[in-house]
Every structure is written in C-alpha cells, then in structure tokens.
Amino acid sequence: MIARIRKTLTPTWRAACEMIYGASGYEWALAARRQRAQTEHLFMLITFGDLVGLPILPPYYTLRLLPFVVPVVQSWKRSLLRERDWTDLGDLIQGVS
Q: Per residue in 56-78, is it b (16+ CB within 10 Å) or e — as a string?
C-alpha cells in the first residue's frame, strides 16, 4: 500500500520540484553558465591569445597549461572569431533588457 502511494507521488513531487526550479532558479543558473563561459573565454584569450595573433603572456606558462586546454581550443577559436551582431552586446550595457 505504501509502495503504491510512493510510486504515485514520486512523479508528482518531481514535477513540482522542476516547476519551482523553472520559476525561481532557472534564470539564475543560465546567467551563471553564461558568466562562467565568458570568464573561460577571457582566460583562454589571455593565456592562448598568441594562437589568434594576440600575445599577452610568455609562452612558458601557456605550455604548462596546454594539456588542460587542448580539448576546448577548437570551440574557443570558433566562438572568439564568430561574427557578432550589435544586439549581442546588450548584456554588457547596463539598463538594457
């Protein structure tokens, strides 16, 4: 009897939790992911900018970090060199929503 009630309430509880998360925490999590991606792109630009023609740090440090960064170099180059519309910069300007 208890197992049957638990089996019935589990999907309902999960749906309620997902609805509460979507209403309260989803935008925050999305903003945190975007901020992390921007910070990661900035780190990559500072350390491996010489790959796109912008040397900032000496190569010694980049050679030590290279094994950790090799898996994301291609996607980083693609995202760095992709064309952006001026409306993409709306997040950087305060007061624009």
A: eeeeeebeeeeeeeeeeeeebee
